[in-house]
Inverse folding.
């Protein structure tokens, strides 16, 4: 394992990044101190990081974006603003930003990084997550979506709404092991709203290490849909930080289907009163896939609400982990927070670890959490078979219903159909 | 159509429930099987439909000349056998219409008929609902979820009407129904009556038989058919109760 640590430090010394030199050096030094997490760290104890321990994934060198085409599978199918990254770098040829309304900016982070520099680096290095340090040392690009709340000149105020969804595609194609470190930003100013559909997909032995920071201003709203459909050999680490202002609303959904090892960390800080956080998702795992969903929702202001539902389908020898924590600080009176994790275990060797957690320091709150692990209902299976459906069809229908109930929580119709299509594809592939 | 010979079956815990059932049902006939609680009525229905949890220890069941017990539950259904459940199962997240279309198309494929698309299915379903006087909202709800007892039974009869089975087995479909729902059930069976089809009505009460007149009435007791007769046997049971069976056995 120390070889792997040294490997990344050596890879850093070889790289020729021109920007943020001091910050990068500080970040790789921090990574050198931390090394990869071990199972002794509580936050990592269920996540099997072996694929990252056994193999070095050097950062993808610049200028090696392979000629890729946009797979039809990953088109949302409605008019949108599309931003595509290939191997961690903006791919203008595949992107189609269309006409963005005045005051909306969607551009490669590489362009905006110099202006953002201190904000990009400072907070993460104090933390003990080595992957954030590695990301800070290596990232070159990502997407940067921002809006202004007032537009100068004669434009009406408030400025025009962004009525089409924004599609972000993170595509990867690797012949040899590479790591793709992207830093992404989303900033929604007070009163504005936005729908963003993010997809991760690719092929080959690559490691995605993506960091996304989201700030939602007072009274602003974001619908954020994520499809993680990385390639079979891929490792996916996705880290999201979300800050919510007063009366802000975050409506997030993650469907995790791909990669041999994945972990999605979502950390939400509710900074303003009467904010609303919806954090939902589903993970479907088979073969020997490993996936962790880790969420931390921190209620730091009063009168806010959280609704969190994650559903897992874990088949064959796969291993699913749900670690969900809700913290209600002393100041966060009148918090209304509910969390639920339900799992279907479909193989004798399939494993689920679930760790729902509430940490409450305020006395006037409504909070609950729950977790369940079960298999398919025998009575329902017999009922469906007694009407003529084969055992396989009946099982498929019940799994579809189980995961579909989670997908039904997605409010955006186009995004919901998009995720449904991928769920059907997963179910169809399972029968082959 | 159905020939049950010396059928013995037991539960997983070893308790023997059926102790030599003999029953022959010909095409075009409606048979009623009556009997007290615990006589084996639902076990007989479960064994015929292939419900897990029973073990057949002796005897045979021939359905249209084939060994019924060798077929999987879904094969039996596709071959035209239908069980209306005593306790229909709630299936959250599965839309009733989507489920029934999948079931109907499975049966149609087996019969060599073309599958119905969503539009064709909806048209056929609406016609049946109207015929049976059942509300259309049934289609859009998840299978049996939150249905009242009567709605669940109506849904069973609606499914039966759509699937048009050769042999329908109704397991106490009439229990706990008000008179309107009972008429729906009776109507469903009567509409299906034809020289090519048959039905077995398992019931505790004679009430249903006022609306669906059976060709033969059987009395099941302690896992055996102890008496068979015409409609008048049901009336006799209604008057004298099942106790006389034990008296008769004691004589």
């Amino acid at each position: 394992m120390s070889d792997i640590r040294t490997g990344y430090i050596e890879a850093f010394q070889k790289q020729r990044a021109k920007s943020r030199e001091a910050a990068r050096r500080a970040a790789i030094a921090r990574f050198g101190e931390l090394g990869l997490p071990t199972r002794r760290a509580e936050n990592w104890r269920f996540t099997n990081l072996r694929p990252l321990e056994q193999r070095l994934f050097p950062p993808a060198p610049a200028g090696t974006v392979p000629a890729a085409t946009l797979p039809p599978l990953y088109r949302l199918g409605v008019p949108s603003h599309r931003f595509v990254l290939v191997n961690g770098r903006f791919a203008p040829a595949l992107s189609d930003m269309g006409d963005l309304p005045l005051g909306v900016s969607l551009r490669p982070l590489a362009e905006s990084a110099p202006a953002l520099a201190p904000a990009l680096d400072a907070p993460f290095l104090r933390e003990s997550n080595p992957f954030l340090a590695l990301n800070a040392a290596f990232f070159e690009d990502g997407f940067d979506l921002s809006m202004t709340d007032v537009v100068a000149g004669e434009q009406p105020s408030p400025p025009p709404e962004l009525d089409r969804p924004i599609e972000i595609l993170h595509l990867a194609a690797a012949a040899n092991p590479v790591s793709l470190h992207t830093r992404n930003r989303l900033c929604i100013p007070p009163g504005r709203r936005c729908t963003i559909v993010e997809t991760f997909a690719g092929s080959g032995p690559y490691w995605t290490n993506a960091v996304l920071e989201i700030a939602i201003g007072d009274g602003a709203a974001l619908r954020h849909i994520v499809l993680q459909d990385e390639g079979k050999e891929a490792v996916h680490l996705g880290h999201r930080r979300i800050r919510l202002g007063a009366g802000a609303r975050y409506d997030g959904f993650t469907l995790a289907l791909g990669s041999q090892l994945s972990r999605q960390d979502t950390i939400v800080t509710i900074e303003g009163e009467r904010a609303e956080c919806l954090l939902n998702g589903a993970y479907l795992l088979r073969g020997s896939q490993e996936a962790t969903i880790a969420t931390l929702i921190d209620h730091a202001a009063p009168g806010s609400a959280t609704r969190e539902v994650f559903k897992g389908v874990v088949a064959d020898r796969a291993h699913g982990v749900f670690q969900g924590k809700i913290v209600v600080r002393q100041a966060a009176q009148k918090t209304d927070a509910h969390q639920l994790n339900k799992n279907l275990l479909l193989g004798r060797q399939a494993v689920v670890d679930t760790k729902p957690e509430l940490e409450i320091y305020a006395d006037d709150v409504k909070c609950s959490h729950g977790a369940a692990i079960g298999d398919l209902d025998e009575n329902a299976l017999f009922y469906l078979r007694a009407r003529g459906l084969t055992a396989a069809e009946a099982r498929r229908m019940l799994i579809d219903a189980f995961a579909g109930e989670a997908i039904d929580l997605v409010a955006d119709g186009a995004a919901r159909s998009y995720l449904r299509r991928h769920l059907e594809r997963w179910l169809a592939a399972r029968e082959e | 159509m159905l020939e049950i010979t010396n059928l013995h079956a037991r539960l997983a815990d070893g308790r023997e429930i059926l102790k030599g059932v003999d029953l022959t049902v010909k095409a075009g006939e409606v048979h009623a099987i009556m009997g007290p609680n615990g006589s084996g009525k639902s076990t007989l229905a479960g064994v015929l439909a292939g419900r897990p949890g029973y073990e057949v220890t002796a005897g045979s069941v021939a359905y249209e000349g084939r060994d019924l017990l060798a077929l999987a539950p879904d094969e039996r259904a596709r071959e035209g056998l239908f069980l209306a459940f005593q306790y229909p199962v709630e299936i959250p997240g599965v839309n009733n219409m989507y489920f029934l279309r999948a079931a109907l198309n499975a049966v149609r494929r087996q019969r060599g008929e073309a599958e119905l698309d969503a539009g064709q299915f909806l048209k056929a379903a609406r016609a049946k609902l109207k015929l049976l006087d059942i509300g259309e909202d049934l289609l859009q709800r998840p299978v049996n979820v939150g249905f009242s007892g009567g709605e669940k039974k109506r849904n069973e009869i609606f499914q039966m009407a759509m699937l048009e089975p050769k042999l329908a087995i109704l397991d106490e479909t009439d229990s706990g129904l008000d008179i309107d729902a009972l008429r729906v059930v009776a109507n469903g069976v009567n509409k299906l009556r034809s020289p090519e089809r048959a039905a077995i009505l398992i019931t505790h009460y004679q009430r249903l038989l006022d609306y669906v007149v059976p060709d033969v009435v059987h009395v099941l007791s302690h896992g055996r058919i102890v008496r068979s007769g015409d409609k008048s046997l049901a009336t006799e049971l209604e008057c004298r109760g099942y106790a006389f069976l034990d008296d008769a056995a004691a004589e």
Observations:
- Chain B has a mean pLDDT of 91.
- The helical segments of chain B are 41-49, 73-78, 96-110, 118-132, 149-163, 179-192, 231-240, 243-250.
- The longest helix of chain B spans residues 96-110.
